[in-house]
């Protein structure tokens, strides 16, 4: 019986996490190629488990990893074109010296690899299969967009682009979670302060509201700042 066949679920879960890291996290792949047993030990796995993992330095693995990374790139960054443009512009204007989020940092983060960091998948398959929300929560965190000092242009753009995603999904959801966004969403221009507010309607129109009476019709719409990750599933995906 192989190490894989006699492994308890907890070991298989750690093995799966390492496999995902090898596919998407370049620092992990580099470290594993240099010293596989050391990386296995970091995941509390014995050297025997090396036989259960592919060779991440092989051409076949590199092609598969590249394909998967590009699929995530299209799914996530494709939903945030103006956001990415703003971040790229900021880096360019700083002469490339500024520290900002990039695709590789996202793929290496817990926000990407932890299924609890995303919203439920629109097709009803549960957490861990929906990368757009993982990217949203990650960039909201690393750019401080939930803080009173959040840069208004970037906060507005990120929220507006993700709001479009949520509203579009709400029109044909298999996962009932998204029905709440069918009318539209709101958020404050500055976290913790109001007015003004922003709204995105079911017609995907962005509006800025500076009067409390004018905001009343939208008061029961979901607040983007109240949106949080789904949390890890209580049902393990390895049994």
Which keywords apply here?
239 residues, mainly alpha, three-stranded antiparallel beta sheet, 10 helices, 3 strands
Explain what the structure shows:
With 239 residues, this protein is mostly helical. It has a domain at 98-226. The protein contains 10 helices and 3 strands. Strands 1-2-3 form a 3-stranded antiparallel beta sheet. The two termini are 18 Å apart.
The overall pLDDT average reads: 87
Percent helix, as a range, is 40-55%
Element pattern in H and E: HHHHHHHHHEEEH
Biggest sheet descriptor: 3 strands, antiparallel
- Distance from N terminus to C terminus (CA atoms, Å) equals 18 Å
Please list the strands of the largest sheet in the order they lie side by side.
1-2-3
Poorly predicted sequence stretches spanning 5 or more consecutive residues:
232-239
Please tell me what the overall shape is. elongated
Q: Give the beta-strand count.
A: 3
Output the number of helix runs: 10
> What class, by secondary structure content?
mainly alpha
Structural topology:
Layout (H helix, E strand, L loop, with lengths): L8 H16 L1 H9 L1 H7 L16 H19 L3 H13 L9 H6 L1 H4 L17 H12 L9 H19 L13 E7 L2 E9 L4 E4 L2 H4 L24
Antiparallel strand pairs: 1-2, 2-3
Helix pairs in contact: 1-2, 2-3, 4-8, 5-9, 8-9
Brief write-up:
With 239 residues, this protein is mainly alpha-helical. It has helices at residues 9-24, 26-34, 36-42, 59-77, 81-93, 103-108, 110-113, 131-142, 152-170, 212-215; strands at 184-190, 193-201, 206-209.
């Amino acid at each position: 019986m192989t190490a894989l066949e006699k492994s308890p679920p907890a070991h298989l879960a750690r093995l799966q996490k390492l496999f995902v890291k090898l596919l998407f996290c370049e620092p992990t792949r580099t470290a594993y190629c240099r010293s596989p047993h050391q990386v296995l030990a970091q995941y509390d796995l014995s050297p025997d488990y090396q036989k259960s993992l592919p060779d991440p330095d092989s051409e076949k693995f590199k092609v598969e990893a590249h394909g998967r990374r590009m699929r995530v790139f299209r799914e996530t960054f494709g939903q945030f074109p103006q956001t990415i443009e703003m971040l790229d512009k900021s880096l360019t204007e700083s002469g490339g010296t500024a520290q900002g989020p990039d695709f590789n940092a996202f793929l290496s983060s817990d926000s990407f690899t932890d299924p609890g960091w995303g919203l439920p998948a629109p097709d009803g398959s549960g957490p861990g299969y929906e990368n757009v929300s993982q990217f949203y929560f990650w960039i909201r965190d690393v750019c401080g967009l939930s803080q009173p000092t959040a840069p208004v242009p970037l906060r507005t753009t990120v929220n507006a682009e993700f709001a479009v995603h949520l509203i579009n999904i709400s029109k044909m959801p298999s996962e009932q979670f998204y029905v709440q966004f069918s009318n539209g969403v709101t958020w404050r221009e500055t976290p913790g302060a109001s007015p003004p507010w922003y709204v995105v309607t079911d017609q995907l129109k962005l509006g800025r509201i500076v009067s409390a009476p004018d905001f009343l019709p939208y008061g029961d719409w979901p607040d983007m700042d109240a949106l949080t990750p789904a949390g890890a599933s209580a049902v393990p995906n390895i049994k």
